[in-house]
Amino acid sequence: MIKTFTQDDVIRYVYEETSPEESLLIEEALMSEPELTTFFLDALELRSMMNKIERQPRPSAVDNILAYSRNHPLNPPAQLRNA
Hints:
This protein is mostly helical. It has 5 helices and no strands. Helix 1 (7-14) crosses helix 3 (34-51) and helix 2 crosses helix 3 (34-51). The N and C termini lie far apart (77 Å).
């Protein structure tokens, strides 16, 4: 039986979510199917680019969280904590 691999299979391979046996079969398919190989190379590039993305919250979001924390009923004012 010939196994046909999909783009989903390739993505799982890129993220190392395939078994060793399945990885070997996918590697064989990559060597014989140019379209799958092109998708594999694109997926590798996208993964690399996504790993470089740095996300940071907006300063206003951090300020809102800190203000909520300072005013939370379970957080007593500083003068009560130091007493």
